[in-house]
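Quick one: co-fold with succinic acid.
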Amino acid sequence: MSYTTIAVKPLTPAIGAEITRVDLSAELSEQMVSEIRDAWLTHLVVFFREQNLTPGRLVEVARLFGKIGRYPFVKGMDGFPDVVEVAKKADEKINFGGLWHTDTSYLELPPLGSILYAQEVPAIGGDTLFANMYLAYDALSDGMKNLLSGLRGVNSAEKPDAAVTRTHRIADRPADASTIVTTASHPIVRTHPETQRKSLYCSDGHTMNIDGMTAEESRPLLQYLYTVQQREEFQCRFHWEQGSVALWDNRCAQHNALNDYHGHNRTMYRVTLEGDRPH
Ligand code: SIN
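Sure, here it is.
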């Protein structure tokens, strides 16, 4: 697509693009939304800088790209139940989302995307890595692709490394997750419903085992897939400034919030977009 209302500058050949000429606080034309959507589907995660958004406007912007979903474990902000504060405080050592994952893939209907708005960021550090799961799939041999077709991964919110990353925020604002099922089996190779491309949909953060196999039996294969998913050539790294916004596609990208800024505050507002059943 050639863009007429926005400018799009890729971060790496693999993933990520910065979009300029857009003020998300103002009303966006249909053409602009369609161009942003196109860039998002092409680059998997798009970034905007120097935005000035209220939590309410962040929700309105998110609604331009899908239906709003809810994060199961942490209550939204007062007056804005759809906006979760993703923070690490200066006296904390654990950060939220600090490992490779795709958001809440332990739900039956995991979110199609998420939008994150930087409120307060450390002067140095606190970047987020994103990785392209289409490329991870494409890099596999035909033999491995055949082996994976039909296999499902069991994803759980209880995988310890991921569970620990939400402890502080749950302590602050616990949501009642008692009726929510937080284990789900999804195909390891997922076809994106809009682009029809195949991607690897298991993650170090949430996948416990291959459905029908023990964790021990599954580990060598899953570990191999994680090393492919985390190859540097499939990644980009985004440095946040106050007012930066990221919109990512959870169906074909993973992310990892780096935890390299102990002693500093980092506060983001996050809204998630409801998704469908992975196929
Ligand atoms: C998340 O996983 O939603 C957090 C990402 C970040 O804070 O960079």
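If it helps, The pocket of succinic acid is lined by residues 86, 96-97, 114, 116, 128, 255, 257, 268, 270 (CB under 6 Å).
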